[in-house]
Every structure is written in structure tokens, then in C-alpha cells.
## 1
Amino acid sequence: MKRLPINASFQAPRWLWTVWGLALLLTIGLALNISPWLLGDADWRWRHVPLIDFTNLAYVALLLAIYIGLAAILWRWALQGTHPQRGWWIVAYVSMASLVIQVATQTISSPDPFSSLMLRTTSPFLSGYHDAALEVEDVSDFLRRFPEIAPNYLPHPQRHPPGLILYFVSLERWFEQFPALATQITKILRRYRCEQWPLLYASDAQYAAAAGGLLTLWLNALAAIPLYAAGRSLIGRSAALAAVLITPLIPGYILWAGIWDQAFVIVTTLTLWLLDQALRLHRSWAWWAAGVLLSLASFFTYAMLVLVGFVVIYTLLRLYLPREFQRASLRQGLWNSLGFLIGLTSVWLAYWLAFGVTFIEVYAATTAAHFAMSTRYVLRLIYNPYDFVLFLGYGLGLLWLAAVWQTVTDRTSLDERLTSPRRSLVLAFTLTMSLLTLSGVSRAEVGRVWVFLMPLAVLAAFTVEHGPAHSIRHWIMTAALLGVQLLVMQSVLVLDDAIMPSPRERLRLHQTSLPPTAKPMRSHLGQTIDLAGFEVNKVRLQPGTTLRLTLYWQAFETPARVYTRFVHVYENKAGLSAQHDSPPREGQYPTTCWQPGEIVADTVSLTLPPQAAPGIYQVIVGMYDPAADNQRLPTSGPGAHDSAIVVTQVEVSASASP
């Protein structure tokens, strides 16, 4: 059994120190925002907005340190034993740790990690697939008319095949068969439903389907299994374990947690494993299976078709070897190619036969807007690879380049270089990335879109000689730098669309104390709600002007009913002059969403009629239950009167106030 090389002292080649040094300098530059060019180019630039909970940052840093320490110990343990099962125990550890790290890291910039993760499914602007699924009534009609209706969707579902929308529709239909389960899931996730207020009016089955977005975390974590299975034969067992152990630290996996691009990593690792089965063990079924897998994956995202190019390039490099030609006859090769092609067209062929819609029709309808985007081709040649390396991790990206350099400068003959599957892997992945970049199909960022290619880059990085796969100390140093970059990127980069509330803004919506500008009041409504205070923009008005009132509510336990808030501007002689009735925040944050103890700011604007008579007007507020014949909540405390609260008084004059 080959043992893991452990150096007595920290010895590393000069080029590896250079890789580590560059990775550290780039990470520091990213943290300090020393140049906007580190965040992208003129076509696409990530927002640098430091948003850090330092306590949670410290906890996550400790978690990553523990993971790296245990990973190093387990790696050494696996290779010093004689049982191959030890490697699989490590893969299980990686999968479980990946789930924990994906969730825990979100706490650096969000007080509740599941808030961000659920928003990435329910927000129409961050994904939009679940939102589009809510509009589907007839699945057959949806699939038949998809090329017609797709251009009307928001950007993400507009530019993708129907697979992800169909996934959420299928979940919704399944939950309709189990209403009790849907209701239970909805209760558990009620708070996150409240943060995306249109979902308050969706059925329990529709909202429970949104929990299916969390499947992305599991799929990404499980990708370690086929990655190790394929990596053992491609780059060796020791290097494969080192590569698998470092994957939970890849920034792109963590920062895009909950986004579907992250989930398709498992398609890449499964394709690689099937390709290894087909070429190394000459299993014909693997060609058919790889074709079907990529066909199914392309029904969810066209990006999976890039893997077809990788499969072709890698296969041609492997079959270049005379030994491979001797083993595989031309007839068998043609049969395998036919099987792969049939599998590759299988899902789309079934779609065409069932609904009369071809791949060309769907592709043309969903990519027109994408290719209409303007871009600077020369900048894309530079920043597409840079953006990929940014989310892969500077250290891994530089190690991949080092592997390319070692491959092309190897003094052995081309036949000897290609004899090693690891060299073929490096060349095939690099050629695929180069052709993808030169094609210009990407119009903006690729750190998210190309995240599915990162397993290939990781394996390529761990083929480098005298690198992190050859020394436990080298691996720890590489992993530590990757962990630091992950912490920095999670702390300072805002990846969510600018149209959505940032984590800081969402945190502001859940305050537990009055702002200093508010006037405290502490009046009670019913048994659970207080009017803690208020603010008013002016106390002297003219007829036709607007009064802006902010009410600060506080619930001591989450109300069981959706109450309507009313605001009346009343004068004894003139009577009611203005009023506004609606659930708090115009229905976007109803009382059933309030968390115990939080302060809910509820702003109301009331315009006085032009004929309002001069005088002293009372501003009266209260709540009632529209489901109980508009019965008002009883009031007590300051300003309480007749199931209402007199908040303040304003003076209406016929002339402008001085």
C-alpha cells in the first residue's frame, strides 16, 4: 500500500510558494477592494459591500479550521491502512461536512442562513423557476406552448429549457396529494414565506414545493461520491482523496449555495465516472448512460452541452493511444458512439414525440435574449477565465495552470504523455475551457454559470507534481488559503441581484428596538400586540398635503390571525377626513409573519382632501380582524379609546406654516 509522503520539515518547491503567495495577495486585494478590476470588467462587476457578523465569522472560521484539521488526519489515516473502504468513509465525511459548511457560511452575512437559501428559490429575480411554476395550470399545455411563453418570463427561466419549471410544478402536484405534509412544511418555513410576500397568497402545496430548492445543497454534497470514484483511476487514489477533501472549501460551491447552477456539479462528476467506465473498462452501457444523463441535464440547462465537448475531446485524446485502438475495434467504437448519440437525444426526442416541440424551437426561443446582449469580446477572453478562477479559488486556479505547464513542457513524447489518464484529463479540460471562452457564448459573468466545470479543474490541479497531493503540509497550506478566500468572498461580495433586499436590509426589517427618532408609546392591542411608538413627518399641514406616519408595532408572540391596520385622520366637526386600511406594510408583512419581540415599522401616507377645514385633527390607529366581521382588537394604555388609539394631533391651517 502506498503511503502518504509526509515531510519532516515544511519543504515546498519555489513555484509552489509563488502560487501560495499570489493567491494570498489576490485574496488580500479582494478583501480591501484595492482595485475594481479584481471584481470584474466593464461588462460585469461584482458588488463589494462588506457585510460581516464578526461573531459568526469567527465561528465559521473555527468550523473551517476544524474541517481542515480533521481532513488532514483522515487523509493520512486512509492511506496508511490496507482497507480501500477507508476512502469511502472519507467521502461520506466530505459530503456531510459540505452540507454543514454550505449552511453555516451563510451566517457570515445573514442572521438566518435559511432565509438567504430560501430566497434564492422563491425570489423571481434570483432564480424565477418556482415563480414561473406558480403560473402553470395545465402541464401539457405548458410544455406544448413553452417556446411561445418562455420569452415572457423573467431572465433566468426565460433563458433556460423547461426542466426546472417542470420540477417545481411536479413537486407542487405531489404535495397536493399529501396536504397534511405540505401544511407541516409550510408551518416550519413560515418565516421565509413571509419574506417573499407574494407567496403568502400561494397554496401550501405551492409553497412547500419551494423547499425543493434545498435539494441543490444535497446534490452538490453528493457530487463527491462519483468524483472520488472517477478520480481514483484518473489521478490516483491519494490525489483523488486530496481533491475530494478540498471541494467543500471551493468558494463557488458555497457562495452559490441554493442556486441551481451549483447542483449540476454532480452531473459533471457522474459523466466523468461513466466516461472512465466506458474507456478504461470498455463497458458499452456507460456510453448509453452518459448520453441519457447529459440529455436529461440539458433539459434543465443548456450549459450541460459543454460536457459533450469535453467527452468528445477526452475520448479522442485517449483513443489516440495505439493500445486503446488495439483493444477497441472500429465496429465497437461506432456502436458506442451510436449509443451515446441516441442517449444524448433521448429526452428531447421524447419531448418532440409527446408535444410536437423540437430542441431547435426551444433553444431559439430561450437564447434570443441572451445572444442579443452586447459584450466586449476581448474583455471576455480575459475575464471569463478570471471569473472562473475567482470562484474556483485563486490557489486551485493557479495550480491548474501549473498542471497545464507541466503537461505541455514534459520532455517525454506525446504518446508517453497521453499514456497517463491524468495528462489526458488536464489537456481535455483545458481545451474545453479554451474553446468555450473563444466561442463567446458567455455574455457576462461565468463564476456561476460555469461552476459545474469546477470538479474537472480540481482534478487537474491535483495532478501537478510536488503539489498539494504529494504532501500533507502542502495540502493544509492550500486548503487554508482557499478557506481564507472563501471567508473573504462571503463577507464582502454581494451576489444577489441589486433589485432584491440585501442581507443588511433584511436584517433592518427585523429590529428589536425602536429607532432613536421614534416617540415611545406602549399602547396595547389585544393580548399580543403593542404599538411601541411612532414618527410623523409634520404636525402642521395644509389642505391637499400628505401626512406621513410611521407606526412601530411589536408582537410578544406571533399573532394567529391576519389583522388589518387602520389609520384615521379625524376632526370633531369635520368628521373623518382621511383614512387608510390595509395589512401592515401594504400586505407585504402581515401580522402572522411577525416574530416575537421584533419591531415592525409600518409607514402610512394619507393625503388630506383639498377642502379640509382648518382645525386640530386627531390621528387614530387600530386593528381589526376582517375574518371576524371586522371586529376591532380591544386597546389599553396611552391614547386608548373605543378600541382605537389616538396617536397624535396635527393642525390643519388654510395658509402655509412658517
## 2
Amino acid sequence: MPDDQRDQASRNETSRLVEDFFDTTTDLACITKAGVVERANKRWLDILEWEPAQMVGRSMADFIHPDDLAAVGASVASLEAGGPPITNHVIRCTRADGTWVEFAWHVTLDRDTGLMLASGRDISGERAAQAERDHLLRVLEAQASLQSMFITGGLTRDWWDSALTSLIELSESEYGFIGRIETNAETGAPYLLSLAITNIAWNEWSRNLYDEFAVAGLQFHNLQSLFGITVASGEMVIANDAPNDPRRCGLPPGHPPLVRYMGLPIFDGADLMGMVGLSNRPGGYADEVAVMLGPVLSVIAQQLERHRLRVAVEAVAEEAEALGSTVTTLALLGDDHVELARGTNAVLDAESLIAADDAVQATIRALAPQAVARLFTFDPDNADMLQRALGGTEPGVDRSTCAAMRSGQVYVTRPDLDLGGCTHVSRSAAATICAPVATSGEEFGLLTMVIPEMPPLGDLSTRGRLDLLAKGIDSLAGALAQVAFREELISQALVDPLTGLSNRRGLTQAFRRTADQARLGDHPFGLLLIDIDHFKQVNDAVGHLGGDLVIISVGQAISGAVRSDDLVARLGGDEFAVILSVCDPAILNSTTDRLLDAVRSIPTDGPDAITCSVGALCIGQGGTATWTAAYAAADAALYEAKTSGRARTVVASPIGLGE
């Protein structure tokens, strides 16, 4: 074949490959000239509902958010003036319906033809996931702050005000209230007693009213209102058009506008303890707001339960004094109430589920020395089975055999009375109490208390104590659920959802802990930053799903190449990091060599191996280097590794030596 024909065939093949890539890539792709769209691929239709034919001949600016146009113009001008290709430029592009989606754009310029070739990756899901993780952390921080305030200062007016402030800020509401539901002694009707309320006084009368009842609480007896529905029925109320909602009762003259409203009940098990009212959230309220506020509402429920227990103890003491002849029995019941309240607080204050279980065991031993408490959690491989938690060896429990799990309420089984109940319990035990370990939104497991022997049923203290133990196990189970939920939130806030590794926030926290330990132990530690080489090409070749699998495989390879006490994290995209708990030049070199080999050994379908580049840093004895300084030094070394050929390690100069 003549040379010119071979050249033409080569050009045709190249053109065909380009056409195939243009039409099969999972990203948006387009070609522009002088800012006008020359061609667009079909992903514009799939993602943004634009027909490619609709776009040709139009200005690219028509598809870009107005607030992003200035930054886009500056980047394009730099590219046209001879600057490098545009990479990871985040731009909002419009859907055909007028909504906006965020994309990370890569743009190159063919200087011979003046054509700009651009591809955009949809990052809206990543941004939404990160925003959700950030919000979870804010919820967790609010929960931790309220727990800490209670431990140091008790249940004060400031505590309730802080709880309300947290709910208002997390829900982006304008104002609100928290109230405890009480019962009218004469009529038996429920009413609301405010514990915290936003000061929205609008005139002298309302200011005087607020000042008068701010500490003692305002009482609300008229339930013919939006909040009254929750007080009377325990139902959540959402009114996103409050002025026209037929359930409203009207507002006093001058009252700030109530445009949108949400009423959230606060339950302790099946008991309605109180409620929260929130107003004027931009965009309105939805069920998702209730789910998001769940952890903070759980803390509030705990405090309301503590109040209930305290009132119960006082009532028992009063009753014991009044009854005279049964004073000893009732005093014992009062002591049990106190012990349960103390134990519930200890569980709630526990830093881990293990510590919380220890507090449960101590409480049960104090109440009934012969009884045995066991915690079961769901088997990860079988959602219908509960397995003994925290290293226990007892047989598991089939969920269908437990009346407490089926009903969602505490249940007492007495085999000797043959009244039915849980069929998983031992018939040799005098009684078994089962309580679900659950929040309003999620089941975590089951708490059981096996009572081997019991005094005669006619004994007043036996009847009272059995009822109290059932309520106590239910209270302890609720507190365990809050600890389990808190641990799950921590995991969500500090763990990368794709790989299961620590995320950037978890890494920075681990860095501070490791730095403290290194200072105390007077030994150096290390930081590695790792970036997958040519990952965009890998992603383009295998698609985003295949790219995710590569990221997971690289994370596993890195984890297998370091020690068990080192921490591996994914910082985002194709970037990873490792904190070496102990480090010196020899450890740094051997670890990075193993790491490079492990990544290179990942099986692939193509001829090219997956490789990565590493920026390594050793932080010396007595170092005072911050995370920012350490990251900058390791990142500079990583950049040097990428620009000097990739698939290698560059070690930065040690920092922290006498700084």
C-alpha cells in the first residue's frame, strides 16, 4: 500500500477511534470554536436533557450558570494565551428544565484549528454526599455538645436554650420552641409546658410575657392549633402553607409571620414525652428534616426521661411516707429508681458500645445480683437473626421468636404462668425481660435480662420490682441505642463510603492523635500522599463504575502494604494518604516500595498496569509541625513524583525537627 494511502487509513482509524470515544464516554463532551458549540455528544441528552442538535451553533455561555461565567472566561483566556489545559474546573451547567448540575471540566485547545475540546464529569452526587457527611458531623457535634453540657452543668435553662438553638440552626429555621407534655390534674387533658422558646417578642405585652414565664415556662392548653395536634395525638405535623392551613388557630396581632411550620413529637419508647416546634425554614419542611434531627431529639428525649425518673423517685418517696406500713418496700423501689437513673446516665455518657454494655452489666448487678443481662445485635449476614454482641458465645435469637422485637416494646415472659410471650427464652428461668435496642428510625438489637428465681407473686415488692425492672431494661436499651447510633454517626462522618477507609476528616483527626503520641513517646512518625497515575485515562477506559472498582482495589492494596497500626485514608477522587505511626528513613523506603509493588500487582484487563505516585514525609522527634504544614510538604513531594515520571516515590525533607 502506498504511503499516502497508509497515512489516510491511519487518519481514518484515528478519526474512528475519536468518534467512538466521543460517543461512548460517560462524561459530557463537546467541541467549541470561538465560544460557539460545534458538536456535543449524546450524554448532554442523558444527563441534562439537551438534544445535541439543539446545542450546535449556540454560545457555550448559554449553558453555564451566570455566576460562573467570569471564572470560565478567565480560564479560557489563560488557555488561549498559551497556558496549560484546564483541569477540574467546577462549573454549573443548566438542564433543559432550568435546574443546575455541577460538573468538573477538563478543556484542551487545538492551536492549529482553534477548536476547544471539553469533557465534564457530573460531581453533583459527590458534592451532595459530602454535604450530607458535613451535616452529619454538625448533628454529631450538637449531640456531643449537649451531652457534655449536661455532664458539667446538669439540666439547666442554658442546656434547653442550647438544644433549641441547635435544632433551629440544623434545620435552618427562623424560630421555635421545645416543650414537655404534662397532664392537667383536674381534667386529665394534656397540655404543653415550654422548656425553651425563641424570644420573638414584638411589643411590650409580649416582652413582659416572655420575661415572666421564660424560666418557669409558658403553658399552652388550647390544642386547637398546629402544635396542639402533636400534643394531643403524638403525630408529626408539617404545614408548608401555614397561613392557609385549616388546622391553624391564628396569631396574636403583631406576631412575626408563621409561613412554614413543623411539629416533631419526642417519644421515649411508646410514651409521648414532649415536642419541638420549628418555623419558617427556607424551602419548607419534609420528612427528611425529622430524620436529620433524630440524634438531637434523642438527646432531648433522654433528658425528659431523666426528669420523669426523678419525678418518679420523688413520688415513690412521698408514697412510702404516706403509706407507713409499706414504707420499707417502697423505699426499696425508690432505691431501684435511683440506681436505674444512675445506670441510664452512665450508659448515655459511655464513649463506646463496649463501655455502655459494661455500665448496663453494673446496673443489673446492683438491681438483681442473680440476674444476667445480654446484648444481641443483628447478624450482618442474616437480617432475621440476632447474635450475641461483644464477644459473647450464647446462641443467637431468631427475631420472629421474640415478642419484644415483633411489637417494638419491652416484654416480660413468665414460663411458669404459661401466658405466652418470647419462645426463645429458657423455661427454667423465672422470668426473662426483652427490650428492643432501637431509636425511632433504626433497630440495632435486643437487650435481655434473665431472672433465675423470683419470690412469690403475692409479694408487693416482687410485683413492683418486676414492673420496675421491665421499665429499667427498656430505659437501658434506649440508652444503648443512642450510643450505637452515635457510633454509627461517627463512622459515617469519618469514613469514606466507597472504600470503607477513613476520609479526610478522619485522617486529620488521626494526624493530631498521632502527633500527640509521637511527642509523648519522643519518636518520629510519617505521612504518605498517594495519587493514582493517569486515573482519568483509566476512568475513560472503564467508565465511572469501573473507576470506582479501581479506587477500591488500590485502597485495599495500600492497606495490605502497611502495618496494622498505620492509618489509610481516601482524601477524595484518586488520592489516598497513610499515617505511619512510627517512621524513620528505612521504614519510609521499605513501606513505599511495598506500596508501589502492591498497586502495580492489581490485576487489570488491559496491557498496562495500574501505578501510583507517592509523596513521603517523616516528621521528627519533638515536632510541632501542623497538619497544614505536613500536608503541604508531602503534597509538594507528590507533585515532584508526578512530574518526574510517575510510578515512584519522592521523599520530602523531614519537618518538625526543633521547629
